[in-house]
Each structure stands twice: as structure tokens, then as C-alpha cells.
Amino acid sequence: RSLPGAGAAAPVPYGRILATRTWIGATVAYFTSYWAVALMLVWLPSYLRNALGHPAHTAAVLIVVPWAVAAVALLAQAGITGRLMRRGVSSRRARGWVGGWLLALGAACLLAQTFVDGSTGKTVLVALGFGLGGSYATVAATTVAELAPTGRSGGALGAMNAVVTAAGLAAPAVVGALVDAQGNDGYHLAVTFSGVLLVIGAAASFLLIDPARDIARLAR
Question: 211, 92 in Cβ contact below 8 A?
């Protein structure tokens, strides 16, 4: 007589899930995106006023723009990803590549502002850069949820969020140190550094995320 539960597959260890290239790629990409979100929350108002010279009332209006860009990007990403997957496109492309393009475009905008003179051009590029760069959350969550075996998605998502939210602590501190050391130039350096981080995030999303490949490996 067989024992209850005999023959049931043992749960996949979390260590194996967290060691997959997909989990690592999604976490790295989301970390860089969350860095951008943290700067929008904490330092963008000060950047608009002190570094770009916008009056307080103008900065109060402009601060909404990158959040609006992020909202549009999130909706567009969800629509594009859903349509691609309904057509049978792999998650690697529908999630990893679409999310990677969001980060890449955000990075391009943030890096381009270095070569633009005038507060108007810089403001537009920074708003687009942070808005696009800060819209990766849904890609990361759905990718890891797809990757993780039954009963493991909560832990895999929790581990990712634990790593990612560290950016919320690090980003404001790093920018504060740059501003203290270099004054208004520190703001511009922080924006450029954020662009470089988004390049890394985009590369991770393009090159590492492939849920189908890693699901097959976890099933072995």
C-alpha cells in the first residue's frame, strides 16, 4: 500500500529558482528601474528647481509628467506583451525584449540630456527617461510569476522585491552625496549615472530573461 503523497515531485528549492538567468535578469532590470522610481519620488522636484532653474509652481506641475509617461508606458507594455503572447510569441520576446526596450529608451533619454543645452530640452528628456525607465515593475512580476513552479511564486517574487527595494534606500543616499560633493553638477551626474544603470538593466532583460528555457531546466 502506498503512502499518501508517494510519488509526488519534491518542491523545487528556492536556491535553484533564484539561480536561474531569468530570475537574475528580471531582478537586475527591475532594480535599475526602481532606482529611477526612487529618484522621481525623492530628488526630481529638487532637480527641477535647483539644477534646471524652474520656479516652484512650474516644478510642481512638471513633476507629474514623468509619472504620466510611466503610466502610458505601463499600459502600452501590457497591451503589446498581451498581444504578442496571444500570437504565440515567447515570453523571452514578449516580456524580456519589450521590457528591455523600455529601459533602453529610458537610458537613451537620460544619457542624451548630457549633450543638450537649455532647461527645456533637459526637462523633456529627463521626464521621458525616468518615465520609461521606471515602468518595468509589471514585466518583472509577470516574468518571475511565470518562471516559478506552483507554490514557489510567492517566495520568488518576495526575494526579488527584497533585492529591488534596496535601490529605494541606495538611490537617494547616492544622489545626496553627489549633490553635497558637487552642488548642482551632482544632479546632472546622478541623472547620467541613472542612465548607465538603465543600460545595464536593459542588457539584463534582453540577454538573460527566457522563462521557457529556465522552466524546462527547473523541471529536470
Answer: yes
Instruction: Retrieve residue 34's grid coordinates.
Output: 526602481
H-assigned helices in 19-63: 21-42, 44-46, 56-62
Reported confidence tier of residue 123, pLDDT bands at 50, 70, 90: very high
Residue appearing with cell numbers 560633493: 181
- The model's pLDDT over 171-193, given as tens digits with 9 standing for 90+, comes to 999 999 999 999 888 988 999 99
9 found inside a domain: no
- Give the per-residue pLDDT at 11: 83
| Domain that includes residue 115, residue range | 15-218
User: Taking the CB of residue 116, how many other CB atoms lie within 10 A of it?
Assistant: 14
C-alpha grid cell for residue 95? 516580456
Residue 206's domain is classified under what CATH number?
Answer: 1.20.1250.20
Residue 60 included in any domain: yes
Question: Could you tell me the three cell numbers for 62?
Answer: 512638471
Overall number of domains in the chain: 1
- Residue 5, Cβ density class (10 Å: 0-12 exposed, 13-18 middle, ≥19 buried): exposed
Q: Is residue 161 part of a domain?
A: yes
**pTM of the full predicted structure?**
0.91
